[in-house]
C-alpha cells in the first residue's frame, strides 16, 4: 500500500481525495497497489467531513513520517507551496501538483532537486486541467521534433469570449455575469489579462524546448480590449476570436506569445467553446494533433493530479524524466514574426490606412458596425505592422489572424 499526503483541501485537493475514493479499484489496478491518503494538510478543520481524521495543520507531521511515499500539492500560490515541495523532494518524497504558477517559476529547480534525490516531480494538471497533454508530449511524442504548440489554455476567458460572440453582449457585462455565477474570480486579472495562459504557455514552451522559458519573457495580451465590433467583423469574416498561447520553433529559437487571435472557421480551435481548452501540437513527422477537454474544474483537474500520483507510485525510488532543465531557452525576437492583421480605424482614416498598408489589404464590411473602416493586411511582420499602426491617426484596434 502506498501512502500519500494531499496539501490543500480546497477545490482541487478535495477533488483528488474524491477521485481516489470513487475510483479506488481502478487506481489500485493502475498503480499496482492501493493508494491511501494518510494526511490532508489544511489550515482549516473539516468537522463532519469523511476525511476529518486525516486533516493535519503542520507540514512537519507529513515530512517526518517515513511512511509517506508521495505528496500532491494542491494549495496553489508560490509560498508556502514552494518550500513544502522543495523540502519533500529533498527527502526523496515524489511530488505532483496542479500549481501552474509554481511550476512556471520554480519547475526546473524542483525537477533538478527531484533528480538529485532519486524521486520525481510531475505537474500534468498545471496545463489544460484534465487534458493529458504534458504526459503525451513526454511519452507518445518524445521522438517527434515538435515545431509548434498552439492552445486555448484558459477556460474563463474562453467562456467569456464564447458568450460575447453567441449572445452579442459586451465584455464587462459577461465578466460580471461570470463572476456572479462563480465561473470567474472576483479578482479576474490573472485570467482576463492573459497571465494564467502565459504561465501555461511558459510550461509548454519549456517542455517543448527541454529548457527553461521564463513566463516574464512571453509577450502577453489579454481579452479586455475585445469589443462587440470585433465580433461583428469576425462573423463577417467567418472567424472566431480566441485567446491563444502560441509557441513556434524557428531558426533563431522559439517565438512565444499570448494574445487574442482571429481563427478561421475551418480551424478546429474555432469550435472550442465555453470553459473547454484545446492544445494543438504539431510534430515534424506526425503533423497536427489536438487535445481537447475541460481545462478547469474540480474533477477534471483532480483526475490529472491522480494520474501523476499513480505514475509516482509506480516509479517509487526512481526519477522520471520530464524533459525540463534550467538551461535558459533561446527565444526569438517576436518582431520578425509574420501574420495577417485585422485592423479597425475611424472612417476618416481610410485613406491614410490605404496609404500605409498598401493595395493588398482586404476590406472587411459588417452591417452591424458604422463609422469605421476595417481591413485585413497582407502578411506583415510584427515589427513592421506596429510601426505602421502607430502612425494611424484614429486607430480603433487590431487583432492577429491565425
Ligand atoms: N483560471 C483557470 C482557467 C483555471 O480559467 O482556465 C484553470 O487553470
From TrEMBL:
NADPH binds at residue 100. It comes from the Bacteria. Keywords: Amino-acid biosynthesis, Methionine biosynthesis, NADP, Oxidoreductase, Sodium, Threonine biosynthesis. GO terms for molecular function: homoserine dehydrogenase activity; NADP binding. It catalyses: L-homoserine + NADP(+) = L-aspartate 4-semialdehyde + NADPH + H(+). Pathway: Amino-acid biosynthesis; L-methionine biosynthesis via de novo pathway; L-homoserine from L-aspartate: step 3/3; Amino-acid biosynthesis; L-threonine biosynthesis; L-threonine from L-aspartate: step 3/5. Residues 8-124 form the Aspartate/homoserine dehydrogenase NAD-binding domain. Belongs to the homoserine dehydrogenase family. This is Homoserine dehydrogenase.
